[in-house]
Amino acid sequence: MVGLKYDFAALEPYIDTATVQTHYTKHHTTYCTNLNKALEKYPMLQTSDIKTLLASLPTLPQEVVQAVTNNGGGYYNHTLYWENLTPQAKPAPAGLLLDAITSAFVSLPDFQKLFTDSATKLFGSGWTWLVQTKAGELKIVNTANQDCPVSNGLKPLLALDVWEHAYYLKYQNRRAEYIDNWWHVVDWDVVSTRLNSPLL
Q1: What is the helix (H) or strand (E) element at residue 194, kind and residue range?
Q2: What are phi and psi of 145, to 5 degrees?
Q3: What is the mean pLDDT of each run of 10 residues along the chain (200 residues)?
Q4: For residue 44, what pLDDT is reported?
Q5: Strand, coil or helix: what is 106?
Q6: How many CB atoms are closer than 10 A to CB 106?
Q7: Fewest beta carbons less than 10 Å away: which of 42, 63, 150, 163?
């Protein structure tokens, strides 16, 4: 499992130390461990890239499909989530990413409002994403549990974890406050890099 690029305390005060440590070392690590366990009988699958596994669920052995969906999705989703956070966040994206966002959503504030509303209203546990379609269009989508946009042919650019374990230690039931503060640590450079990368 890839390590964090910052210390557990680096995202304070927006995401607290205890949450980052517990989220990463307990939740994220458990998804990785359980994925590896599920694939023990399938050495050929163990060498596959996680995105490839998630993109080809219908072709996998039936007994591992749900495990890859849940644990593979949990591992990959969390990897993207940690990667798109930084203690040295810029206030806004630039270049092609900003152009793409303004083209799709009119302005950055409009995009952030739509994204925040979508994440705030997501029922139960899941994720809110900025994704790119195969046609190059940007969209905001929600997924339940650990489902991943890659499984639907979409390229994830920005991932927001809205499971309670992502915010409950600091924000308790105040999901909207967590989301508002999360914007302060988004690494727009990483999001921009994903915009220019292939899906697989």
Answers
A1: helix 188-195
A2: 55, -125
A3: 88 98 95 94 90 96 96 97 97 96 98 98 97 96 98 97 97 98 98 88
A4: 85
A5: coil
A6: 11
A7: 63
Q: Residue 19: its pLDDT value, please? A: 97
If one counts every other C-beta atom within 10 angstroms of the C-beta of residue 67, the result is 16
In single-letter form, the type of residue at position 120 comes to: T
Side chain identity, residue 52 = T
Number of neighbouring beta carbons within 10 Å of residue 33: 13
What confidence score (pLDDT) does residue 2 get? 65
Q: Which two tokens stand for residue 176?
A: 């909207």
Cis amide prior to 156 (ω within 30 degrees): no
Cα dihedral 142→123→162→106 (10° resolution):
40
Q: Regarding the domain delimited by 95-195, which CATH topology (the fold level of the hierarchy) does it fall under?
A: minor pseudopilin epsh fold (3.55.40)
Taking the model in full, what pTM does it have? 0.95
Is 3.40.50.2020 the CATH classification of the domain at 17-83? no
Q: For the chain, which residues make up each domain, given as ranges? A: 17-83, 95-195
Number of neighbours of residue 17 by Cβ within 10 angstroms: 16
